[in-house]
Amino acid sequence: MAGNPETSGNTERISELLQRFVSQHQGDEVCLRDLFDEMGERAFGPTLLLCALPEALPLPIAGISALVAMPLLLVSGQLVLGYQQPWLPDLLLEQRFKKEHCEQVISGAIPFLEKLEGFVEPRWSFFTSPEAERCVGALLLILGFIIALPIPFGNMLPAIAIVLICLGLIEKDGLIIAISGLIVGMTPALLLLVL
User: Fold this and answer.
1) Averaged in consecutive runs of 10 residues, what is the pLDDT profile of the chain (195 residues)?
2) Beta partners for residue 97, in sequence order
3) What's 31's DSSP letter?
4) Rounded CA gap, 119 and 37, in Å?
5) φ, ψ for residue 97 (rounded to 5)?
6) Does the predicted model carry a pTM greater than 0.85?
7) Which residues are CB-neighbours of 3 under 8 A, at least 6 positions away?
8) Long-range pairs for 164-168 at CB < 8 Å and ≥24 separation?
9) How far, CA to CA in Å, does 97 sit from each of 15, 34, 67, 185?
10) What pLDDT does residue 8 have?
11) Distance of CA 118 to the CA centre of its chain
């Protein structure tokens, strides 16, 4: 996988890349490697965003939590440790799921991402510095752990926070990351209300 920085000269948005993937991918099954290959530069932001998207949408797809929690924890842990690029084992990258489920997730995600992308822009660079990214990785690790817990209706809020943080990393938007950090702070209290 390609390394940091999260963005390069490529101005194509994640929503546009996902739309192209849906329209061009052939076959009845999809694996994570297919998605990451479409992303081109597969740094931490795009990797974690792709893993969190299924949980950020109200879609009734069984078994998704178990599928996304492991890569979320693994990759966010690597960000905490200061890795220059994310790594996932072939066992996860080759895990296959139905194309119709992938299309369902992406079709639901594109309008959501397009709205969010309209607000992100490079600002508050302190929160996107290499040092700050390790702290951001700790937040993502906490959120990934919450997603891994068997809490009814407890996955969507932390997943949305991960998507926001990842968009902040991709677009170098420290303000979005800071706002997402506040959401992370509120998540445990809200989950207690659910329980």
Assistant:
1) 43 81 79 75 76 75 64 89 84 81 82 86 84 87 81 75 89 88 67 52
2) 30
3) E
4) 26
5) -145, 165
6) no
7) 43, 84, 85
8) 164/116, 165/48, 165/136, 165/139, 165/140, 166/44, 166/45, 166/46, 166/48, 166/49, 166/52, 167/14, 167/45, 167/49, 167/113, 167/116, 167/117, 167/120, 168/45, 168/120, 168/127, 168/128
9) 21, 11, 10, 33
10) 42
11) 18
Q: Which two tokens stand for residue 143?
A: 């959120």
Beta bridge partners of 78: none
Q: Quote the CA–CA distance of 84 and 79 in Å, as a whole number.
A: 8
CA atoms within 13 A on the CB side of 179: 16
**pLDDT of amino acid 18:** 84
What 8-state DSSP symbol labels residue 40? S
Q: Could you say which DSSP state residue 61 is in?
A: -
Q: Where are the alpha helices (DSSP H) in the chain?
A: 14-24, 32-39, 44-56, 64-80, 90-93, 99-117, 130-148, 156-171, 174-194
Locate tokens 């178990």: which residue? 66
